[in-house]
Design a protein that fits this description.
The strands form 2 sheets. A 6-stranded mixed β-sheet has the order 8-9-10-7-6-11, sandwiched between helices. The chain is of the alpha/beta class. Helix content is 40%, strand content 15%. The protein folds into 2 domains: 169 residues, Aldehyde Dehydrogenase, Chain A, domain 1 (3-Layer(aba) Sandwich), CATH 3.40.605; 128 residues, Aldehyde Dehydrogenase, Chain A, domain 2 (3-Layer(aba) Sandwich). Strand 1, helix 5 and strand 2 form a beta-alpha-beta unit. One of its GO terms (molecular function) is acyl-CoA dehydrogenase activity. This is Acyl-CoA reductase. Keywords: NADP.
Amino acid sequence: MQLSARINALLQLGEHLRAEDEYLKAIMHRSSFHNPWFTIENQERAIAAIAQRFLAEAPLREWLSKYDIPNENQPQTIGLVMAGNLPLVGFYDVLCVFVAGHKAKIKLSDKDPYLLPYLLKLLEKIDPATANYFELIERMRDVDAVIATGSNNSARYFEAYFGKYPHIIRKNRNGIAVLTGTESADELHELGHDIFRYFGLGCRNVAKLYLPREYNFHPLLEALHEYRDIILHQKYKNNFDYNFALYILNKVQYQANGCILMIEEPSLQSRIAALHYEYYDDIDQLEVELERRAEEIQCIIAQPGIIKAKTFPFGKSQQPELWDYPDGVDSMAFLLQL
């Protein structure tokens, strides 16, 4: 397929996803039954984000304008190891491989086995030639390069197994927020989206707050209490109750509002239904600390101009653009140089 045909197929897929699809709704129900973390609401949110931010003409063409993509090329075979923490979290890699003109061998996560195959079937229905670009596999072999996403533990295995190939291997990263105490009630409420969306399971979810010393927690806890309905989700509640008991038994000091537990902790990765925080005394020293830990950070939420590093507005951590590459590694540049 020529580049123009591939782009056209993607744009038609975006149009389809923005319309009603009863069969897709059935797939979402099946997916939700298989994995209770994938609520219908969260699946709809993920699909809408793909349709509006990845498969709409304006952002797609703006993104592609940054690269010199050949109209036709010699396709390479790219192995994709999918994560399963969020619905369709691996679609972005599939998109990049397809746009670059390569073929993808896709190892699905057992947590998310239904949504992506259906989207690939939709693409095939739009243009039968797309079927030549995707293969769902059980075992990774006969590839020219690999993009694999997982935990720090799985990344060690990926390095050992795929180290001989050109590769992108992603590890654990988390979102953080830098607060000053001057945030408005609206900003703190929007921060709740960064913390709670997808139950906090995404690498872009805020898992840690950096706070000025003597920070007043009351406005923050009050704002986050607006998301209290999340505790009605049984798996989230189980995690909340477990953490609550653990902190009490271990005599860990915590802040709580009924739907989130906050503890002072240096780690950037927090448990489900928990949020870490750490105090800072000087913003310049904090910037040095964030630079030192850059490989642990996926994105930073803060008011504009608070720190020199790139930041996202409150509430926008889970709304990346096509050029907001995971782990800061330009996937498209990697694929085009193969």
